[in-house]
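Retro notes (design track)

What went well: tokenization of the new backbones is finally stable.
What didn't: we kept losing track of which sequence belonged to which structure.
Fix going forward: every design gets posted as structure first, then sequence, in one message. First example under the new rule, 296 residues:
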């Protein structure tokens, strides 16, 4: 966990545990084992402070133009990371999920979609894409559905109860310019700012998209002058080198290697991704083999 983060209601920053070294490791290990065995975390961890951040769009006087972030106990976040690490060993998320997954990013998905669109356009074949924007996705996840999806994903009942305990009797206050509100219960959605929420959301999306993936094997999910030209060329070659160094099962490699039946249009063909790469390599005097140890 990075230093310099805003603290929760207990005012204990993660830097405290980092400074204590081995003593902190022993204490936290004992504490987390007790929480796991009892399936009950300290009551102090159930409290949080909600701060609002403007989304830089919309009406500044509208509540919908703000994103709520919960300031939670750093010690609780360390416990969440322990739980997340164990859940990742059990839950198998589909390969089409590119949000909140190690070694995957939405950039990979965007790159794969671009190459796929180019190949379909060159072969004069139809390609249908569907984009779904989930508004306030974290805030609207029904918790009963979350427990159901965890069980369907093979999570042991004990860890389901541990995660349930993280959400039971949770209370928060809203911090604003004139002070704080009274405490109120939070009974729906995932915690914004929680270390565990991204993986829980990915688990829910994985289970809810099972039927869609059975029909469409290419579903991809992911819940902007001279000196500038040099920078663009450098970034493009770096990304191509990244793609070439990845394993053969990597989605970017698969898209580049994929061949589709069909013929390009007879008029002047549109510029493709590899056209730009070939021009860049010719300009700098490089070859595809150079990607093995360069362009990092």
């Amino acid at each position: 966990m990075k230093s310099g983060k805003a603290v929760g209601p207990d005012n204990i920053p993660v830097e405290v545990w980092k400074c204590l070294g081995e003593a902190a490791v022993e204490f936290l290990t004992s504490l987390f084992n007790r929480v796991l065995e009892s399936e009950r975390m300290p009551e102090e961890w159930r409290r949080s402070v909600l701060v609002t951040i403007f989304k830089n769009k919309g009406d500044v006087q509208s509540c919908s133009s703000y994103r709520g972030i919960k300031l939670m106990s750093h010690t609780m976040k360390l416990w969440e990371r322990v739980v997340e690490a164990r859940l990742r060993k059990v839950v198998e998320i589909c390969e089409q999920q590119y949000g909140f997954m190690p070694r995957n990013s939405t950039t990979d998905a965007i790159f794969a979609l671009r190459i796929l669109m180019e190949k379909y356009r060159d072969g004069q074949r139809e390609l249908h894409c569907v984009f779904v924007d989930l508004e306030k996705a974290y805030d609207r996840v029904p918790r009963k559905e979350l427990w159901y999806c965890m069980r369907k994903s093979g999570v042991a009942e004990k860890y389901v109860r541990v995660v349930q305990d993280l959400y039971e009797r949770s209370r928060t206050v809203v911090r604003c310019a004139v002070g704080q509100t009274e405490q109120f219960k939070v009974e729906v959605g995932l915690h914004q700012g929680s270390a565990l929420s991204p993986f829980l959301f990915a688990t829910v999306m994985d289970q809810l998209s099972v039927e869609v993936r059975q029909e469409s094997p290419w579903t991809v999910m992911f819940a902007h002058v001279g000196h500038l030209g040099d920078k663009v060329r450098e970034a493009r070659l770096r990304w191509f080198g990244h793609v070439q160094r990845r394993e053969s099962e990597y989605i970017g490699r698969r898209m580049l290697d994929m061949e589709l039946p069909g013929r390009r249009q007879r008029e002047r063909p549109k510029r493709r991704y590899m056209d730009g790469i070939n021009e860049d390599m010719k300009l700098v005097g490089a070859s595809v083999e150079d990607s093995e140890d360069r362009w990092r």
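Added context from the reviewer: The beta strands are 47-54, 66-71, 171-176, 179-180, 184-185.
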